[in-house]
Amino acid sequence: MTKAVLLAVLFSIVAGILQSTVFSHVAFFSAVPDLALGVLVYTAYVNGPVPGQLTGFFSGLLLDFLSAAPLGLNCLVRTVLGAAAGMMKGAFFLDFLVLPMILMASATVVKALAYFILHLIFAPAVPTYSLTSPVLWAELALNTLSAPVLFALLRRVKPLSAVKEK
What is the pTM of this model? Predict the structure, then answer.
């Protein structure tokens, strides 16, 4: 479990750096695919809630240092997302196309809802998505379309799914 979490956190950081540097230059409606979220969702779904929470916490904390968001915001949201995706472990067969797209679309919507709820509580400090802005919808489309490719690449990394059942 430790190896899977450490590797997933490392991949999330690399994905976060790619998102903020390379992909920001080819943004679609000012949105880029959230690859770090994809790494988190895949790791949590394959390994369960505890590795999902740990991956979400540590990758979120490190992503907080990369972003201008308040410290702990990504950490909180990604820990909840990791736990939710991990609770679905084994509920469905992880195919190559449909389930990755459904998981990523759901995670993107839950992330947007979490930011909205936190924005209601801590209004000026927490950025949120606007339903009338195309950014949320573009990110949702990009995340959904990139999920099969990202999951296929992550599936090839065997230590990400190295948790042994007892």
Answer: 0.90
Instruction: Name which of 42, 142, 126 is nearest 82 in CA terms.
Output: 42
Phi, psi of 68 (to 5 degrees): -95, 5
Q: Rounded CA gap, 79 and 156, in Å?
A: 24
Q: What is the pLDDT of residues 6-63, one digit of tens each?
A: 999 999 999 989 988 888 888 888 889 999 999 999 999 999 999 999 999 999 999 8
Output the DSSP codes for 1-55. Answer: -HHHHHHHHHHHHHHHHHHHHTGGGG-BTTB---HHHHHHHHHHHHH-HHHHHHH
How many Cβ atoms are within 10 Å of 93's Cβ, its own excluded?
Answer: 7
Q: Over the stretch 19-29, which tens digit does the pLDDT of each residue have?
A: 888 888 888 88
